Protein: Zf-HC2 domain-containing protein
Amino acid sequence: MRKMPLLPDCKETTRLVLEGEDRQLRLLERAGVRLHWRMCAGCARFGRQVELMREAMGSWRRHAEPQESKPAE
Structure:
């Protein structure tokens, strides 16, 4: 397991945000990311962009999945 500093730098924050898409971050990882975001507008913006992409992909998947055909009336 990798030892994380209390306050991650931008590179580490970006890595954690992207890893958070695949797994639930540990409490200290989440806290470090949030603390970093409060001091770094660029990384906070990146976090919002990742969230936007997640939501957009979810919408796209819902619309792209074949709809169950309804019985003809």
Observations:
- The radius of gyration is 18 Å.
